[in-house]
């Protein structure tokens, strides 16, 4: 009988955030966290200074009676204090619960009560939002206000800086942690049903952080300076804060100044190499940069965009006009979030290269991916056949917090993503739609993502979201909701002409809605549910039917 031979390595070395915390101080003491505290005020702290504050915060948490496993909420923008919480909370064994400040009130109440948050750390600028909700929270015993401003009507409120002062200096004696214990909690911003809690472990965050250093992925290194615009409440800001800490890269945080003008100013002043955010913010920034040709954004040689499909034209325009390189990543709250990254082979920037850049990319190491068709069979990776993406790996969720029956999303060790894609022979994933956004016309699928991509390559189109419109003959037809550039006189016929030859003939839309804005979700994605609702209620503005 064969016997397994055990390896002789330190396999018990726990993959916890304590390693990253220690590493910040020992290997990157001079790296910095930079916060845009006011439009004209930038605050800087070295990793050494931040680490000392993390020690104080850890001691303060203990003083507040925080125990291992307790959920500690944050209601905050991207700033240094939030970053300190990112480490102090998990490193004492508690769970950092980043609350999405833009959710509807009922959803926030549901989430806080579902998670049973004990303490909530809130930015002073957000106190007016939170104080209205506080009476509906069942479990919160303490609030801690961060930054300048009072606590309003929040009960049992302390001030963050006072807490740190009282906690005193010196290294904190952190507890031994198990790498599988929970470190952070983030609820999905799903548009249907109640939000679901994704409970990241120390191990999953540690491994995902290591993956941010992979050159075929984000490729973070200590030469980088990382501007995290993606909110720290959206899937750990896509791992950028942890990744920067691990790499020893500077981390730049814009706090609440997310409009194109302050962001452009921050980029010019701080010269980040990498910036992470959703396409809508990049699109605003592109418009601003086009209108202000003196603005220099060219330090961004390794920007990362995801959260929804990144229009190819957006990437090309940035590269050709502003020397900014944007790469696409795909993932979800449930995948920590980065699961694939598109970094095609360098060389000639011809059609093949740009086609690959416009795809969602190859799975990162440790992420396994398959496509499943309606009948449950596996779909071939031929670049054409489509199916639902299922993924598995050490930073992919295996269930939802306190949901015994997350059932339909989890399929024998695989996460069902609800995204429809084709994968080519090189392993490049191309998402064609969310399952619920697919347009089924005459028994065939039309990809709303592809139509949007092509529409947004028209110079007069600022935003485009395509939804299904019920149709007696075809079952569904595409309805293109379009925002035109100001003063543009492009009409529906022009847009159809633009699409002709770029998409299959039967995809050509016969209806448009010229709207002033595409509604966005709490994390800045096009909110097609709202558009579908308006269509159903007869409230969709600017509709033009072509004969
Ligand atoms: P969230 O959990 O809010 O981050 O949303 C995850 C969803 O965003 C995914 O399931 C996709 O539908 C969508 N998504 C994220 N990144 C991309 C991308 N690069 N291209 C297309 N869709 C994306």
Write the layout of secondary structure elements.
Elements: H1 17-27, E1 32-38, E2 41-46, H2 47-63, E3 71-75, H3 80-91, E4 95-98, H4 105-115, E5 117-123, H5 127-133, E6 142-146, E7 157-159, H6 160-167, E8 182-187, E9 197-201, H7 202-211, E10 225-228, H8 240-247, E11 250-253, H9 260-270, E12 274-277, H10 279-291, E13 303-305, H11 312-322, E14 326-331, E15 338-342, H12 351-357, E16 362-363, E17 368-372, E18 387-392, E19 410-411, E20 414-423, E21 429-434, E22 439-441, E23 444-446, H13 448-455, E24 461-471, E25 475-484, H14 492-499, E26 511-514, H15 528-536, E27 543-545
Parallel strand pairs: 1-11, 3-4, 3-5, 4-8, 5-6, 6-7, 10-11, 10-12, 12-13, 13-14, 25-26
Antiparallel strand pairs: 1-2, 8-9, 14-15, 15-16, 17-18, 18-20, 19-20, 20-21, 22-23, 24-25, 26-27
Helix pairs in contact: 1-8, 2-3, 2-6, 7-8, 9-10, 10-11
This protein binds adenosine monophosphate.
The site of adenosine monophosphate (AMP) has 21 residues, from strand 14, strand 20 and strand 21.
């Amino acid at each position: 009988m064969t016997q397994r031979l055990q390896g002789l390595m330190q396999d018990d070395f726990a993959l916890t955030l304590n390693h990253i915390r220690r590493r910040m101080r020992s290997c990157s003491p001079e790296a910095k966290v930079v916060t845009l505290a006011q439009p004209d005020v930038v605050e800087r702290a070295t990793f050494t200074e931040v680490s000392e504050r993390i020690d104080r915060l850890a001691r303060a948490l203990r003083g507040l009676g925080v125990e291992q496993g307790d959920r500690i909420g944050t209601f905050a923008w991207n700033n240094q204090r939030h970053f300190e919480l990112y480490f102090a909370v998990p490193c004492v064994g508690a769970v950092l619960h980043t609350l999405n400040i833009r959710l509807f009130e009922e959803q926030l109440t549901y989430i806080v009560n579902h998670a049973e948050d004990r303490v909530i750390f809130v930015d002073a600028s957000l106190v007016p939002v939170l104080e209205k909700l506080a009476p509906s929270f069942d479990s919160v015993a303490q609030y801690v206000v961060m930054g300048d401003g009072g606590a309003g009507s929040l009960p049992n409120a302390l001030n963050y800086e006072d807490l740190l002062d009282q906690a005193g200096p010196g290294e904190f004696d952190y507890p031994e942690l198990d790498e599988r214990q929970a470190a952070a909690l983030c609820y999905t911003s799903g548009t249907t049903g109640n939000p679901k809690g994704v409970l990241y472990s120390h191990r999953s965050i540690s491994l995902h952080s290591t993956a941010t250093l992979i050159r075929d992925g984000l490729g973070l290194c200590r030469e980088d300076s990382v501007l995290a615009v993606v909110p720290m409440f959206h899937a750990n800001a896509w791992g950028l804060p942890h990744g920067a800490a691990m790499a020893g890269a500077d981390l730049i945080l814009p706090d609440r100044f997310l409009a194109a003008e302050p962001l452009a100013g921050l980029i010019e002043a701080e010269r980040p190499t990498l910036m992470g955010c959703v396409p809508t913010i990049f699109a605003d920034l592109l418009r601003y940069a086009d209108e202000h040709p003196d603005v220099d954004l060219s330090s961004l040689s390794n920007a990362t965009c995801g959260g929804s499909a990144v229009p190819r034209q957006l990437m090309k325009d940035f590269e050709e006009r502003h020397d900014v390189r944007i790469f696409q990543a795909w993932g979800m709250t449930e995948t920590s979030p980065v699961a694939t990254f598109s970094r095609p082979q360098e060389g000639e920037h011809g059609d093949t290269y740009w086609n690959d850049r416009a795809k969602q990319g190859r799975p990162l190491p440790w992420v396994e991916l398959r496509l499943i068709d309606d009948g449950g069979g596996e779909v071939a990776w031929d670049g054409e056949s489509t199916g639902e993406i299922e993924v598995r790996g050490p930073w992919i969720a295996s269930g939802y917090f306190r949901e015994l029956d997350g059932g339909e999303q989890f399929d024998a060790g695989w996460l069902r993503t609800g995204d429809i894609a084709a994968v080519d022979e090189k392993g490049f994933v191309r998402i064609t739609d969310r399952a619920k956004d697919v347009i089924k016309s005459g028994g065939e699928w039309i990809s709303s993502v592809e139509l949007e991509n092509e529409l947004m390559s028209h110079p007069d189109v600022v935003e485009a979201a395509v939804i299904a419109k019920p149709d007696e003959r075809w079952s569904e037809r595409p309805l293109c909701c379009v925002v035109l550039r100001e003063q543009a006189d492009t009409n529906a016929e022009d847009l159809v002409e633009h699409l002709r030859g770029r998409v299959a003939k039967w995809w050509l839309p016969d209806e448009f809605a010229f709207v002033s804005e595409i509604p966005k979700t709490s994390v800045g994605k096009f909110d097609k549910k709202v558009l579908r609702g308006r269509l159903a209620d007869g409230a969709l503005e600017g509709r033009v039917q072509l004969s």
